From TrEMBL:
It catalyses: an aldehyde + NAD(+) + H2O = a carboxylate + NADH + 2 H(+). This is aldehyde dehydrogenase (NAD(+)). It comes from Tritonibacter scottomollicae (Epibacterium scottomollicae). Residues 2-469 form the Aldehyde dehydrogenase domain. InterPro entries: Ald_DH/histidinol_DH, Ald_DH_C, Ald_DH_CS_CYS, Ald_DH_N, Aldehyde_DH_dom. Keywords: Oxidoreductase, Plasmid. It comes from the Bacteria. It holds the Pfam family Aldedh. SUPFAM superfamilies: ALDH-like.
Length: 473
């Protein structure tokens, strides 16, 4: 299979798609390595991860180039956010594992009852193309720290970064069979792994459709399934939000709530499951926000990934480009108010899978763009009149990954409102006033956005079984 550079549509590498025999061989290797790795002292596993961290840092430029070429992210973003996400998750896993009690007493009431946290076993890890090292490291690092062995199937559209990581893991001295990588597509290697009787767990990040299929496939062997799926995040902006931005010393003068929201939606060319793609604005500032969105979209530069700058790059593939074009056309067909962007390539670009940063206003819950995850730089905007209406609109989706609240957080009464809204939003995460979650915060969703958590102690526990032992002493 050819790996394309989405900026040029040119072939940059060729991978071999595995089959059932390759999946079987990888699972067998992981199964054979499991007894020794599972009983390795946690301190030794952490030491191996620390060696991996040193190697990862030393090869960061290679990793940035691989990610930029394979999925089209601009090189500046690849060097910082994309490579940095992998390093950050590895660092946080090391810190978490060092402080984790793999053996602990049940409590003072039962001093001879011991609770043991033991590795789940052989794990099938299936990752997407949009944040390659972010998603790979969120699975591989805690699985290694827990004492699991694994088979990684990276996205076939963007496998180069994962293959580079495999070299690093080998260089770090992990025992043979602990980590295995098999390239392939979902229908082939992916299906073979999720149904494999010797795989004890599947951790998958990707579409809800695929997550449903994986759950059904894994059910026959009753293996653990952890899913991080799609999203359709709502960004609730109250009328006083700009006052809060002005009061916040960390915010630039032009980084008002609407501006932040549009930029966040377009980041990584809109290819983020937690993107705030539905902007809900209090009616008194709605038209002002629409004008802001138009201005930001028009000023958002689009260009090749190899050019230094703050532009957004292409989307990952022709398939993805065509899907986004179809959904933009649906916006026009269903009479949403066009604000910016639209169909076709941006001006000046004649090849590559580039999408015009697009905004539609007056989008209602019956429209396709309200319901479906676009996974491109497309924002929809809707007004609301009351807090209760904003909450109802935000929750009007089968997804529940990340929602956002923008309001004045200086006054005590407004703090209470922000907290009240956050409690009522049906999502695994809520970000307030442009503040990102801290290191080690659990990442995951509710409803059709999935059922697992990644990051920090929660991410480590995903790969651990709990065993209760009586009469320990």
């Amino acid at each position: 299979m050819a790996v394309e550079d989405p900026s040029t549509e040119e072939k940059i590498a060729t991978i071999t798609l595995g089959g059932d025999a390759d999946a079987d061989a990888a699972v067998a290797a992981a199964k054979a390595a499991f007894p020794d790795w599972a009983t390795t002292e946690p301190e030794a596993r952490v030491a191996a991860l620390e060696r991996l961290m040193d190697i990862y840092k030393s090869r960061a430029q290679e990793m940035a180039q691989a990610i930029s070429h394979e999925m089209g992210v601009p090189i500046a973003l690849a060097k910082t956010a994309q490579v940095g996400a992998g390093a950050g998750h590895l660092k946080n896993t090391i810190r978490t594992a060092k402080g984790f009690a793999f053996e602990r007493r049940l409590g003072d009431h039962a001093p001879n009852d011991m609770i043991l946290y033991e590795p789940v076993g052989v794990c099938a890890l299936i990752t997407p193309w949009n944040w390659p090292m972010n998603q790979v490291m969120l699975k591989v690092a805690p699985a290694l720290a827990a004492g699991c062995t694994m088979v990684l199937k990276p996205a076939e559209q963007a496998p180069l970064s994962a293959m580079l990581l495999a070299e690093m893991i080998d260089e770090a001295g992990f025992p043979p069979g602990v980590f295995n990588l098999v390239n392939g597509d979902g229908a082939g290697v992916g299906s073979a792994l999720t149904a494999h009787p010797d795989a004890d767990m599947v951790s998958f990040t990707g579409s809800t459709r695929a997550g449903v299929a994986i759950s059904k496939s894994a059910a026959d062997t009753v293996k653990r399934v952890s899913l991080e799926l799609g999203g359709k995040g709502a960004n609730i902006i109250f009328a006083d939000a700009d006052a809060d931005a002005d009061a916040d010393a960390d915010a630039d003068a032009d980084e008002k709530a609407a501006t932040r929201g549009v930029r966040h939606c377009f980041n990584n060319s809109g290819q983020s499951c937690n993107a705030p793609t539905r902007m809900l604005i209090e009616r008194s500032i709605y038209e002002q926000a629409v004008e802001t969105a138009h201005s930001v979209a028009e000023k958002t530069e689009v260009g090749p990934a190899n050019v230094e700058g703050r532009q957004i790059g292409p989307v990952v593939s022709k398939t993805q480009f065509n899907k986004i074009q179809f959904l933009i056309k649906r916006g026009f067909d269903e009479r949403a108010r066009w604000v910016a962007g639209g169909l076709g390539l941006p001006e000046g670009l004649e090849q590559g899978y580039f999408v015009r940063p697009t905004v539609f206003a007056d989008v209602t819950p019956d429209m396709t763009l309200w319901k479906e995850e676009v996974f491109g730089p497309v924002l929809v905007m809707t007004p609301f009149d009351t807090e209760e209406e904003a909450i109802a609109l935000a929750n009007d989706t089968p997804y529940g990954l990340t929602n956002y609240v923008q309001t004045n957080y200086v006054q005590t009464a407004d703090k209470a409102r922000a907290r009240r809204v956050a409690r009522q939003l049906r999502s695994g995460m809520v970000e307030m006033n442009g503040k990102f979650s801290g290191a080690g915060s659990p990442f995951g969703g509710m409803k059709q956005s999935g059922n697992g958590r990644e990051g920090g102690v929660w991410g480590l526990e995903e790969f651990l079984e709990v065993k209760a032992v009586t009469c320990w002493e």
